[in-house]
Amino acid sequence: RDINMAASSASSSMMKTSRRALVRRTRSHVTTRCATTAPASPATLSAKNEGKGKRVMIVGGDGYCGWATSLHLSARGYKVAIVDNLCRRSFDDQLGLNSLTPIVGIHERVRTWGELTGNDIELMVGDVTDYEFLGESFKSFEPEAIVHFGEQRSAPYSMLDRSRAVFTQYNNVIGTINCLYAIKEFAPDCHLVKLGTMGEYGTPNIDIEEGYITIEHNGRTDTLPYPKQGGSFYHLSKVHDSHNIHFAAKAWNIACTDLNQGVVYGISTEETMIDERLINRLDYDSVFGTALNRFVIQAAVGHPMTVYGKGGQTRGFLDIRDTVQCLQIAIDNPASKGEMRVFNQFTEQFSVNELAEIITKAAPKVGLSPEVINVPNPRTELEEHYYNAKNTNLKDLGMQPHLLGDNIIETLLQYAVQYKDRCDKTLIMPSVSWKESGSKVVTHGNVKA
Fold first, then answer.
1. pTM as predicted
2. Among the options 69, 197, 269, 290, which is catalytic?
3. Is 238 a catalytic residue?
4. Can 448 be counted among the known catalytic residues?
């Protein structure tokens, strides 16, 4: 027994040492290779001193929103560190999925950015559910703000099977709790900017306020967190995050901003288009692809656009360029200590039918004639409902939206046509049923749960 305890202690010590070494090695390795040349890029010329060296840790910086945000902030003078366990890439390997656009590895991405712009991004590869790794990352980088994208972000993935539901809840909730503890212990003045989702609210038959609602009941009045009605285990993990952040902000006097983001579309930001090696991922499959991006790609490859059910499902949407803009605004205008403020982060509202109609009208301008089909809805959700969400807080702070128009759709269609040969059409049709989710592990993206 003593031998086992000693071995366990030694193993634990070696693991701690290796975590610290990984943080140091990765950080120095990337920084050294990035600082070779420094030609000016369009982005660095536009606003290179806005960040004034503010240190921003981006958890999940290799993902769709995280990568675009990392480059956007780095180009504007923020000191950026990416923390990522690269699990999004592993999901593609698990299920046989792929990005329509060819994305290079994270080390090459970061190295390319440094060589082209002279702006170093530090890279720390590890898992925020591993608190020792996260703590070492905090002590090494000393963030003034942390942007938390580092969660499993797909509702269908969370409904694939029991194991994916459990993973989603554990990864998302524990990761966020660890970030809160790391702020408390290592960087108490650090501002947490957490990516939530408009899906936390569900589709109530009343207006959706920004995080809080004032209620009169039996002669008394109070302002309370807005009721949450998550529609999947993914959405519910975000609900749990919001509750945990709300508690920690009050208990530990932490400054927190919860960004309830709508459905993001697009691929291009000023920075990701500097070089093909910096291009962002573009998902088209039924597990990770979002509505507008999927429809555009379906139109480009000659597949009918797949409207789930009646198509009256209405949500908030925003361009990827507005995602990065909103993140910068939140960082530049931090919450007060002890406050969890909530911003609804979207620019326009559309139903699924309206999206299909917009693409149908724009497609002939690039020589396409897409069709629309209604397919059985794999989700458990209302297909016709009231939806009116408020989104004034970010606008009041200066957000200038890029609204959806023909030019944006045409640009997206052109990108989709350019890379259409990378599309596996067997991954397009819905493959994950909310009602059929079970304990049997699903091993491929086009196999029903």
1. 0.90
2. 197
3. yes
4. no
